[in-house]
Design a protein that fits this description.
Mean pLDDT of chain B: 80
Helix content of chain A: 55-70%
Number of strands of chain A: 0
Distance between the termini of chain A: 49 Å
Oligomer: heterodimer
Radius of gyration of chain A: 19 Å
Largest sheet of chain B: none
Order of helices and strands of chain B: HHHHHHHH
Shape of chain B: globular
Mean pLDDT of chain A: 89
Radius of gyration of chain B: 17 Å
CATH topology of the largest domain in chain B: Rna Polymerase Sigma Factor, Chain: A
Strand content of chain A: under 5%
Number of domains of chain B: 2
Number of helices of chain B: 8
Strand content of chain B: under 5%
Structural class of chain A: mainly alpha
Structural class of chain B: mainly alpha
Chain lengths: 85, 183
C-alpha cells in the first residue's frame, strides 16, 4: 500500500512539472481510482498558484485570437443543449 | 454570495461563457505565450484551453480553490501535454512582433489579486535556490536536465529541490500529502 502511495505521489508530481507519458498517465488513473482519499490535483494547483504569482497577465488578448475565441464560445453554446442563450 | 463564472456556465448560463473569456483571457494568454514555441502554437493552445475550461466547469468546486487557480491548472495541463506531444522547448522569442495587444481586455487583473497574494506568500517561504529551480520548471517549462544545465546544479539536486519546493507550496495551500513522505 505504501509503495502504491509513493508511486502515486511520484506520478502526481511529474504530472504537475514535466507531464506524463501515455503509459504513466494510464498508471496514474488506476492509482487515483484506487486511492480516492488522495487529493490528486494538489500539486497541479500548487504549480498553478506559482504561475499566478509570477506571470505578467497584463498583456491583453490579440484581436485575432479574441475573435477566434468568440467563435469557439458561440460553437460551445450552440453544441451545449443545456446552455440558456 | 454571487456564483462564480464557472458555476454559472455549469448551470447553463450562456453569457458566462464569454464573461469567462473576458475574465481569464489575459491569464490564459500569458501562460500560452510562456509555454508555447510560437505565436501560432500559443493561439491554438489558448483556444483548446478555453474549450476545456468551459467543458470542465461542472467539476469546479469553489471550496477547493479560487476560480483563477482552477483555470490556470487546466491551462498548464493542456500546455504541458502540447509540449510533450510536439517535443518542443518552450520559448517566448517568436512573439514580440506579431501581435497588437487588445487594450480592452485587462479586466481580470483585480480578480486575480487575492490569488497573487496567496502565491507570493507561499513563494516567500522558499529558499532562493529552491525558488529559482521551481520557477524554471513551473513557469518557464524547462525539464529537470535543462534546469541542471542552466543552474549548474546536479540533476539529482534539481529533482529533489523541485519536489520539495512544490510539496512545500502544496502544503502551504492546505492539501494533505498523499504519502506522508518527507523529502
Amino acid at each position: 500500500m505504501r509503495d502504491d502511495l509513493r508511486r502515486l505521489d511520484d506520478l502526481l508530481l511529474a504530472r504537475a512539472t514535466t507531464g506524463l507519458a501515455d503509459a504513466e498517465a494510464a498508471e496514474l488513473d488506476g492509482l487515483v481510482a484506487a486511492h480516492p482519499e488522495v487529493d490528486a490535483d494538489a500539486y497541479e494547483r500548487a504549480a498553478a498558484v506559482v504561475c499566478l504569482a509570477t506571470l505578467d497577465s497584463s498583456i491583453g488578448l490579440p484581436s485575432r485570437l479574441r475573435r477566434a475565441l468568440e467563435e469557439r464560445a458561440a460553437e460551445f453554446v450552440a453544441a451545449s443543449g443545456s446552455i440558456r442563450r | 454570495m454571487a456564483q462564480s463564472l464557472l458555476e454559472r456556465i455549469a448551470q447553463g448560463d450562456a453569457s458566462a461563457v464569454t464573461e469567462c473569456m473576458d475574465a481569464y483571457g489575459n491569464l490564459v494568454w500569458a501562460l500560452a505565450r510562456r509555454l508555447s514555441a510560437t505565436s501560432a502554437d500559443a493561439e491554438d493552445a489558448a483556444q483548446e484551453i478555453f474549450i476545456e475550461i468551459w467543458r470542465s466547469a461542472p467539476r469546479y468546486d469553489p471550496a477547493v480553490a479560487p476560480e483563477a487557480v482552477f483555470v490556470a491548472t487546466i491551462a498548464r495541463r493542456r500546455l504541458i501535454d502540447r509540449i510533450r506531444a510536439r517535443k518542443r522547448r518552450p520559448t517566448t522569442e517568436a512573439f514580440d512582433e506579431e501581435f497588437t495587444p487588445d487594450p480592452g481586455s485587462g479586466a481580470d487583473a483585480g480578480a486575480l489579486a487575492v490569488d497573487l497574494s496567496i502565491a507570493s506568500r507561499a513563494l516567500a517561504e522558499l529558499g532562493e535556490s529552491q525558488r529559482e529551480i521551481l520557477l524554471l520548471g513551473i513557469v518557464d517549462g524547462l525539464t529537470h536536465s535543462e534546469i541542471a544545465l542552466a543552474t549548474g546544479k546536479p540533476l539529482g539536486t534539481v529533482k529533489t529541490q523541485m519536489r520539495r519546493g512544490l510539496m512545500k507550496i502544496r502544503d502551504l495551500l492546505g492539501s494533505d500529502a498523499p504519502t506522508g513522505e518527507e523529502g
